[in-house]
Amino acid sequence: MLSGNYILKVYIDNPSDENVIFTRRFFVIEPLARIDVRIPYYPKKLEYTRYKQQLDVLIQTPNMFNDEPQLRTFLTIQQNGRWDNAKVGMKPTSVTSNTLNYDFQNGIVFDGGNQFRHFNIESYWYQSMYVKQIISDPDGYVVILHTTYPRTDKPYETEIDINGHMLIQARKDQNTNTEGEYAWVEFWLKMPKIQDADVYILGQLNDWQLNGKSVMVYDNGLQMYHGSIYLKQGYYDYIYAVLPNGETRASVTPIEGDHWETDNDYTFYLYYRERVPEYDRIVGYMTMNSKTQN
Predict the structure, then answer these.
(1) From the centroid of its chain, how far is CA 275?
(2) Could you tell me the pTM of the whole model?
């Protein structure tokens, strides 16, 4: 199999677009390059200090490319599991001694953001932290989370999270695979309405998608945003993201704040455009955590 990007599509009945149940992206990697990254305390733009995370990237490509490495290599960087704010198709600013340098004037910068919010619904028998009420009726369970608030004016707090991921897990006396149940989980966010933008619930719990299933509706009477997602028993991280009208890149900073200290995961994909046959190989791959770096 050639290295590169692939899509897995699952259909029901017959392979037509209207019968797609879900799709999943996966990658085949050739680990030929070494990616070195550090996150400096002081970014190139000093006004980002204590807020943004600048990634200083250097890629070693020993005897790999003899043909136009500056034109035929492309770097993509993903923060946590998101694609909406990924840095895509970056070319090196210079190539020296089998080394690709990414020394942009303002650096490669991501919002620091904040630690993810979370809740535990492993059991519907008791209310864990951040769960306000659990309702059981003939149509199933409804879990109402405690009202949340913006954190933009709050100092950074070190809180353990799983960087937006989820863990499907039922009670200890249940078999998670066959006995785990689902519930509509209700999210409430108390704040003034943000004009000309939508607010989304974001995390692995909705596959990091900014769509109609994760958008929140504003209740003018309560002055609160409300959203609901159908989830299985387990442990979930999430965060609130704001998407201005007409844009595709969301930001968590208007609600969650922006902190250099935030624990974020970064994934790096180095592509090389092959001539014959013409396709994009993935010749470098690395994941790192902003707390530990590499």
Answers:
(1) 32
(2) 0.91
